[in-house]
Design a protein that fits this description.
This protein is of the alpha/beta class. The chain contains 23 helices and 20 strands. The chain folds into four domains: about 1-110; about 110-220, Beta-Lactamase (2-Layer Sandwich); about 235-390, Reverse transcriptase/Diguanylate cyclase domain (Alpha-Beta Plaits, 2-Layer Sandwich); about 415-670, EAL domain (TIM Barrel, Alpha-Beta Barrel), CATH 3.20.20.450. About 50% of the residues lie in helices and about 20% in strands. The protein has an eight-stranded mixed beta barrel, surrounded by four helices. A five-stranded antiparallel β-sheet has the order 2-1-5-4-3. Strands 7-8-6-11-12 form a five-stranded mixed β-sheet, with helices on both faces. Helix 1 (about 1-20) runs antiparallel to helix 2.
Length: about 675
């Protein structure tokens, strides 16, 4: 029994060793496992020594006394064995966590895009990232354990090495130190190194960690960033930022040398139509072609820049040549007059050019650019495809236009716009078959702004879409109100542009309005100007067909004023054409207009299309149209455009009187409010 007790500490020590060894295979390079085994073996030796001492003492003392005293070493050995086992288990857990940490470190070096390496206190490479290997073209086995400075190219490698470690020892880090490294292809790569050290408890350097920067790649990135900052990515031309710098330089030099500088502001005519009908990819090709054409005759001392969109600026400031601004403007217009070949398509765009001259039209870059911009808008207003030099009178006109634009924005946001309505009358029965919604805007003085001017301002200021949506919504709500008042259902005609109906979300918006108001789709008619749909035949056909299948009526307004073929009407899903009022107003005195009107009526009837003559103002015109089977008319003869309240009263009393007038031609039959000179 005593022997068993003596052997208990021995058994505990052996058990501790067994637990350590059974944890897995011994790795000669695993310090944690080595330490655990060493501790267990030490404890085992202690247990053996304790047992030997006990045997020696037992020979000198009485058995009972020995038994009593021997419990102390037994317990001591047992506790020692248990502690050894516990420590071994704890060390095994630490070792496992260490292995996991090492694995994560290896994965980090493998996957990080950074250029990293770690070296020991003698400069030997311990770890490198995959990006580091990719940059230099080596395999991992070729660099691990090698001296980092073996890859450094220098006439004084030993000196560089000594200075490197001296700095690390003194400050614990180095920042942005440049080295030339040789890669696997024996190509020299310049890098900048930032490095920090890791020290032990006594302050000795264990290893250091470095981040490398590829200076060649860095410089290329800086060049790309600089190019993005100063050059247009689409055309490669200087952008607005660089153009502003060039104007400042040109004006400063011209001021010193008492010379002139010409600022040409270019804006492509109807370029938006190309984007809307052909797509932005085609539009981008056209913009590149514009840049390529104009760059061919831009002199070395001039600057050709793209401001954005379809706007360009040319700064003519070559000190070696006398500037001739007129010749330059003509060359610009002539160069862009030729069609652009995009794939198998020929596209046309002209250009409006405004010119401002230093120091006549401004003494600073900002004023000069604004003056050229103003002159360009004047060129637009005068028919496009022309050049205008800035004049002081243009400033007043530009200011007036800007003020009008601001007022229109306020009027739209504050609900100050009005909707008027003009009757459309059946020329056979005399019944009012529909009304056309017409936008009206009165200023604070009560003056009426012509609708054509409103449209022009809206198109140039980006208000065309919100304005069109307001007109459509207001008209639909009014149509519903008349139905609720018990009036017979009327066709409500609303003017929209081809751009509107080609918008991706237009159908959804239209359906939401119809659902809100509850009016039937066939009581709504959308009027489109001839030119707005002829600009993109295929896209317009798709958009119009989409509307047609939903039961919405479609008509072409101002028909006959465009330059398209009448045969296009066979392909459009429309049911009505409206003859332009300029033909109707002079139909009696102008044989050409009479012939055109008659031809349109015959053609429309043959295609089973309805016809509405716009601008009917006297009984002679009415008689001409009736004799040629024109079914519907609209104009001052039947009543001016009225507000909603006036039109309500008109609709309640007009039908009987209009029928008598139509059949008799006697205007006295019309006892409601007579013709007005209000602008249509």
């Amino acid at each position: 029994m005593l022997i068993v007790l003596y052997l208990f500490p021995l058994r505990s020590g052996l058990f501790a060793c067994r637990r350590v060894v059974s944890g897995g295979s011994m790795d000669a390079f695993d310090p944690e496992k080595q330490s655990a085994l060493w501790l267990s073996c030490s404890l085992l030796a202690g247990a053996l020594a304790t047992a030997a001492v006990i045997l020696l003492v037992n020979s000198l003392y009485d058995l009972s006394l020995t038994l009593q005293q021997s419990w102390l070493p037994v317990l001591t050995g047992g506790i020692a064995g248990l502690l050894a086992g516990r420590t071994a288990l704890r060390l095994r857990g630490t070792s496992r966590r260490l292995e996991e940490s090492e694995q994560r470190l290896r994965e980090f070096y493998q996957n990080t895009p950074a250029l990293l390496h770690a070296i020991d206190n003698r400069g030997r490479i311990l770890h490198v990232s995959q990006a580091w290997l990719d940059l230099l073209g080596y395999d991992r086995e070729e660099v691990i354990g090698k001296d980092f400075f073996a890859f450094v190219v220098s006439d004084h490698v030993d000196q560089d090495r000594a200075e490197h470690f001296h700095k690390l020892e003194e400050s614990g880090q180095i920042r942005d130190v440049n080295y030339y490294l040789i890669n696997a292809n024996e190509t020299i790569i310049e890098v900048a190194i930032t490095e920090v050290v890791h020290r032990d408890a006594e302050g000795r350097i264990i290893e250091s960690f470095a981040v490398l920067s590829d200076l060649a790649s860095h410089r290329a990135s800086e060049e790309r960033i600089e190019r993005l900052a100063y050059f247009d990515t689409l055309t490669g031309l200087p952008n607005r930022s660089l153009m502003n710098d060039r104007i400042v330089q040109a004006v400063a030099q011209a001021r010193r040398e008492k010379r002139q500088v010409g600022i040409f502001f270019l804006d492509l005519d109807r370029f938006k139509l190309i984007n809307d009908t052909q797509g932005h990819a085609v539009g981008d090709l056209v913009l590149r072609s514009v840049a390529q054409r104009l760059k061919k005759f831009i002199r070395s001392g001039d600057t050709f820049a793209r401001l954005g969109g379809d706007e360009f600026v040319i700064i003519q400031a070559d000190p070696n040549h006398d500037p001739n601004f007129t010749i330059m403007g003509k060359r610009i217009i002539g160069t862009l007059a030729e069609p652009f070949q995009v794939g198998n398509r020929e596209l046309f765009t002209t250009v409006s050019v405004g010119v401002a001259i230093y120091p006549i039209d401004g003494d600073d870059p900002e004023t000069l650019l604004q003056s050229a911009d103003t002159a360009m808008y004047v060129a637009k207003s005068r028919g496009r495809n022309n050049m205008q030099f800035f004049s002081t009178e243009m400033n007043a006109a530009a200011m007036a236009k800007t003020n009008l634009e601001n007022k229109l924005r306020e009027a739209l946001s504050h609900g100050e716009l009005q909707q008027h309505y003009q009757a459309q009358v059946n020329l056979v029965t005399g019944r009012v078959t529909g009304v056309e919604a017409l936008l009206r805007w009165y200023d604070s003085d009560g003056a009426l702004t012509p609708s054509g001017q409103i449209i022009e301002i809206a198109d140039e200021s980006g208000l065309a879409f919100p304005l069109g949506e307001w007109v459509l919504k207001t008209a639909c709500h009014q149509a519903k109100a008349w139905q609720e008042q018990g009036l017979p259902p009327l066709r409500m005609s609303v003017n929209l542009s081809g751009h509107h109906i080609r918008q991706p979300n237009f159908i959804d918006y239209l359906e939401s309005i119809l659902n809100q108001t509850g009016i039937k789709p066939n009581t709504l008619e959308i009027e489109l100007a001839e030119n707005s749909v002829m600009g993109s035949i295929s896209d317009s056909i798709m958009a119009l067909t989409d509307l047609k299948v939903r039961g919405i009526n479609l008509s072409i307004d101002d028909f006959g004023t465009g330059c398209s073929s009448l045969l296009y009407l066979k392909h459009f899903p429309i049911h009505r054409v409206k003859i332009a009022q300029e033909f109707i107003r002079d139909i009696i005195h102008n044989p050409d207009y009479a012939a055109i009107t008659e031809a349109i009526i015959v053609m429309a009837n043959s295609l089973q299309l309805s016809v509405t003559a716009v601008g009917v103002e006297d009984p002679v015109q009415l008689k001409f149209l009736r004799e040629r089977d024109c079914v519907e008319g609209q104009g001052l003869l039947f009543g001016a455009a009225m507000n909603a309240e006036q039109m309500t009263a008109f609709l309640k009393q007009s039908n009987c009187q209009l029928k008598k007038f139509i059949t008799t031609g006697n205007q006295k039959e019309l006892d409601f409010e007579g013709p007005s000179t209000e602008i249509h």
